[in-house]
Amino acid sequence: MVKAAFGLRFACVIALFSAAGLHAGDLAAYRVGDTAGENIITPMALDVIDADATAARKAAEALKTPAIFRSYPDASITNAMAGELQAAFAATQSNFLAALKANFPAVPLDGDTIASAQFAGFLAAFNGKSKSFPVSAKLAASWAAGGAGLDTENQFIAALLQMTHRAIRADDLPDGFAVGDTLMLVPVNSANEKVTLADAEQRGKLITQNNMTTLSRLQMLFRRNFSDDEQAVARSLSVFLKPNCAPDANLTQQARDRDVRQLVVVDHYDAGQVIVQRGATIDLKIKTALDALNEKLMPDQLNRQIAAAREQVQQQQLQIQREQDAAAQAGSQAQREHAAALELQNQAQKIRTRNEWLVVALAVVSVVSVAAIFFVWQLSRLRRKNDLLPARVGHPNTIQTELAPQLAQVIKEALVNELAAQRHELLSAQQCAAAEIADLVRRLDRLQAPMHERLQIYETQIQKLEKELAVRTEENRELLQMKIEMIRHQLESERARGRVDFTN
Q: Do 336 and 248 belong together in one domain?
């Protein structure tokens, strides 16, 4: 089971490494601007997302989502306008009275002086110097007569406040911010208040685009309420108008992205339909279709590659199994020869033990022979002392005296011959054992040499792949790692087959 799983992983590695040579890979090789070398026909139904059309469709649909504007409190806007107008009005009044005192000896002026040409010339000169806020003839007469001109000031403030009943925005919008037919006004207390999209949609108010006006258009509408003689004053007053709402580009983008996220424009190709004609230029739309077709075709190509790789792995596994069986047989033969060598050594030891016993026996026989000779010699001396006694032919003692030396010599020669034969047999056995052991060592050396070469090759491949792994991208790193593990697995198998156990 482990071998089968490893073989499948190896097959996947080979298939992935071979993917660059597939026909589907030719489709991925096309780039925008290339020329198609042949008609490319899809063999299956294909749906391809048109990126340009999808972007255009999303942009059009996004305008249907209301643009979100922050709406500031009316009081803060009106108070700011009124305050600025009052400050400008007071400054202009102060400047006017100072100039009036410098040109007329008695202030306030009477009616005839105010109606005189001198006063008219003074007013024209003053307005020429104070263009930011020109003074009308009515207001100048009031100030010259000693009045405060509060009616005129209140009239100006009322005219400004009358224009703030509608939504007012600045003329310029953020880049990429488009306004559709509907808008959403979200009331806030300040420009820095944090508002989420959910909060905006909960408390926001929808209005049409016609109910919001730009600041420049509002100033133009404001000036229409004044006569031609008062246009200079109207222009000065219109400067105090302020926007009361501001676009929130971030919330608007969030809302529109959410609403158009699922929108796509798909180009459908039927099976057998031509995607690109030979000689046509590859544009972005065709390139997208070719990439989609490549993704469709790639699994079939990979399946065929994996099947071929799996068959190759099976053949390699069979070869490895045969090599393992041969190595096992060689190991068994080596063990049998080792056992035979041990048996020879045991036999040699037995021979040495038997020879030792024979030496002991020879020594005993020699001692007995010497003792017998000594006994016969002593007996002969006793017989010579008894020379006076008549000789008795055929006496048993006389026979023993004559045969004893010969018997001892025969026994000694037999023992020596036996020892020589045993020594010759021992030497022959030792020579045979030494020759067999030397032959066994030579065969083991011949068996180990190919294994050592294969181990060296595997180690070299592992080092090469590890170097290649260091420079490959993250996409191919896992594939190389799987191949390294496969080679390491074979390396361990070779090492396991190379260990011959001599312990048994």
A: no
pLDDT tens per residue, range 32-73: 888 888 888 888 888 888 888 888 888 889 889 999 999 998
DSSP β-bridge partners for residue 187? 71
Claim to verify: residue 238 and residue 107 sit in the same structural domain: yes
Cβ atoms of 70 and 200 closer than 8 Å: no
C-alpha 35/C-alpha 283 separation (Å) is 10
According to DSSP, residue 31 is labeled -
Q: Are residues 365 and 466 in the same domain?
A: yes
Pick from 408, 421, 405, 400: which is nearest to 366 by CA? 408
Bridge partners, 274 (sequence order): 41
Element (H, E) at 301: helix 284-385
62-65 long-range CB contacts below 8 Å, 24 or more apart? 62/178, 62/256, 62/259, 62/260, 63/178, 63/180, 63/181, 64/180, 64/181, 64/259, 65/180, 65/252, 65/255, 65/256, 65/259, 65/260
Helix (H) or strand (E) holding 38: none
* Interval 110-165: pLDDT, tens: 888 889 999 999 988 998 887 677 888 888 999 999 888 888 889 989 999 888 88
Q: Is residue 76 domain-resident?
A: yes
254 and 331 in a single domain? The answer is no
Same domain, 348 and 441: yes
pTM of the full structure: 0.49
CA distance 28 to 18: 15
Between β-strands 46-49 and 212-214, what pairing exists: parallel, antiparallel or unpaired? unpaired
Q: Which helix (H) or strand (E) holds 180?
A: none
Instruction: State which of 199, 228, 259 marks the end of a domain.
Output: 259
Cα–Cα distance between 381 and 358 in angstroms, integer?
A: 34
Nearest to 251 by CA among 72, 57, 73, 65: 65
- The overall longest dimension of the chain from CA atoms, in Å, is 219
Verify that 333 and 245 share a domain, yes or no: no
Q: Which of 232, 259, 286 is the last residue of a domain?
A: 259
Domain identity same for 333 and 446: yes
Q: Which domain holds residue 380?
A: 327-385+392-498
